[in-house]
Design a protein that fits this description.
flat; 5 helices; alpha/beta; 213 residues
Length: 213
């Protein structure tokens, strides 16, 4: 009974940890800052603090030979040798579809809030600046609409304007993306299982082909 209580407590704790959302924060305001948050924990991803350089230790020829890595066989070349060009393409296509399915599964649970984009355009030629403004809006707003159709946006503001009096352009970008690790783990496990099954099928087909030859 005690063992069941301990196992249940551990599983409950793991489930609780997987339900705490991960938050990725990106800020651009003359420089880029990238930070990952999990609960009360915060990790600065960029810019990273410079690490002190360690003194290089001279290695003997034997040590260098021992530390040298043997080159790994080329995966794509192996596929071509085993299945031919068409078979290799079909296999890589299946891998790509599995990865895309995992990304789409994760994207369904992404929450973008807030989203801030402010751009003040400036330039010496008013006519050319007006043309650039129109071209940028024609490309940017459809792209943002596409993202909003694929992801969940809750708090978003976009401000693109032209200022003929400013000397320097101004760009500010701030976005925070949230997702629960449970959804990432589920999508990753599903993708790994499909990749393993696909790999087993490839090896089985290659063995049968060699036997028939």
């Amino acid at each position: 009974m005690l063992a069941l209580i301990i196992i249940g407590s551990v599983l409950g704790l793991l489930l609780l940890l997987l339900l705490i959302p991960l938050r990725l924060e990106l800020i651009y305001n003359s420089d880029i800052r990238l930070r990952l948050e999990y609960g009360w924990l915060r990790f600065k991803l960029f810019p990273r603090a410079d690490k002190p350089k360690n003194k290089r230790v001279k290695q003997t020829k034997a040590e260098k030979k021992h530390t040298e890595k043997t080159p790994r066989p080329n995966f794509i070349k192996q596929l071509i040798d085993q299945q031919g060009y068409i078979g290799a393409f079909q296999t890589l296509k299946q891998y790509a579809l599995i990865a895309l399915e995992a990304v789409q599964s994760i994207a369904k649970h992404l929450l973008v809030s807030p989203f801030r984009l402010r751009l003040v355009m400036t330039g010496p030629d008013a006519a050319d600046l007006a043309i650039q403004y129109g071209q940028l809006c024609a490309a940017l707003y459809p792209f943002l609409s596409f993202l909003q159709s694929r992801l969940r946006f809750e708090d978003h503001k976009t401000d693109i304007r032209v200022d003929y009096l400013k000397k320097e352009p101004e760009l500010y970008f701030y976005v925070k993306v949230r997702i629960r690790p449970l959804f990432v783990l589920t999508a990753a496990l599903r993708a790994v299982c499909k990749l393993v099954i696909q790999t087993i099928q490839i090896k089985t087909t290659a063995k049968e082909r060699n036997v028939s030859l």
